[in-house]
Amino acid sequence: MGTKEQVLALLEQHRGACLSGAEIAGRLHLSRNAVWKAVNDLRKAGYQIEAATNRGYCLTDANDILSVQGILPLLCENARAFADSVIYEKESRSTNRTAKALALDGAAHGTTVLADSQSSGRGRYSRSFFSPPGGLYLSIILHPERLHFSQITAVTAFAAVAVCEAIEAVTGRAPAIKWVNDLFLGGKKVCGILTEAVTDFESGSHSWVVVGIGINVHAKQADFPPELRETATSLYPDTLPESGIRNRLAAEIINRLAGFDTPPDEKEIFAEYRKRLMMLGKQVTVIRGDETYCAVAEDIDETGRLMLRTPDGQRQILSSGEIRILT
Ligand code: BTN
């Protein structure tokens, strides 16, 4: 860790409280001048650090800069084991891409890649995912022991519920899930999840799974490209950035997902997932390749498949695909 990062880590641990230059220097075995320089560099990077006479430096709450140092103090005891494997890229091509490369290289369970923006963010069906600065783009590597490849839908469902809970804990607003893995607030998409896995075909189990999560945090409605403006939203489209919101969200997500290392209780996962589904009992349009048709989304089964009733009374069961909710 460089000097700037060490000073930031200490200030983050004492966010809102003052630490004198001498104290910081003493704790980190640095000169007072090196501390002063690091504080100036952090201010240039956008951190609000107040300097009070005789009291020292204080990292105020008035910023929302994503950083590993801002996340680590917020990790719960279980997730702290992964503290060394949280990686930040200011601009990533795609955090899923980086995480997959790391997984192929043998990166451990819990390794997390975070970015402030992505130049080639990817969504399902190889679509691009709009990833401007100010969002939260996060990919976490999971090594779920003995997880059979048929259980991958459970990982996605678990992640969708975990992100809903994290958003609720931090913002007080409860997103709904649109099958399979989109999170909605106020009828618009606020988060997308892309789960990718490598399977060992001999054993039928997953070698690793990468769960990629993209949350629109500060984007204003006008920031979205025209084709997304009607359907996408962010957590704070109209208000000023909340302090440390993205670090808090990232920590809440890591805290929940890092525990996913044993075979999941699928029944429990889908029960939680079902509670948050937004389309049950509603008319939907089903899109499968070139085919589209209308149906009522009746329920999900115990493996997360969507159970539909078509207008002629036939039952359809969907394990993948996309639906649009008709309002
Ligand atoms: C979707 O809406 O179809 C899924 C979008 C998933 C986007 C996230 S952002 C972090 C991670 N990196 C990517 O390139 N994609 C996922």
Describe the structure.
This protein has 327 residues and is α+β, with helices and mostly antiparallel strands. The chain has 3 domains: 3-59, Winged helix-like DNA-binding domain superfamily/Winged helix DNA-binding domain (Arc Repressor Mutant, subunit A, Orthogonal Bundle), CATH 1.10.10; 68-276, 2-Layer Sandwich (BirA Bifunctional Protein, domain 2), CATH 3.30.930; 283-325, SH3 type barrels (Roll), CATH 2.30.30. The protein is built from 8 helices and 15 strands. Strands 4-5-6-10-9-8-7 form a 7-stranded mixed β-sheet, with helices on both faces. A 5-stranded antiparallel β-sheet has the order 14-13-12-11-15, with no helix packed on it. Strands 1-3-2 form a 3-stranded antiparallel β-sheet. A hairpin with a 5-residue loop joins strand 13 (306-309) and strand 14 (315-318). The N and C termini lie far apart (52 Å). The structure holds biotin (BTN). Biotin (BTN) binds next to helix 5, strand 6, strand 9 and strand 10.
Secondary-structure topology with pairs:
Layout: H1 3-13, E1 18-19, H2 21-28, H3 32-44, E2 49-52, E3 56-59, H4 68-71, E4 86-92, H5 95-104, E5 112-118, E6 136-142, H6 152-171, E7 176-178, E8 182-185, E9 188-200, E10 205-215, H7 245-257, H8 266-276, E11 283-288, E12 291-300, E13 306-309, E14 315-318, E15 322-325
Parallel strand pairs: 4-5
Antiparallel strand pairs: 1-3, 2-3, 5-6, 6-10, 7-8, 8-9, 9-10, 11-12, 11-15, 12-13, 13-14
Helix pairs in contact: 1-3, 2-3, 6-7, 6-8
Bound molecules: biotin.
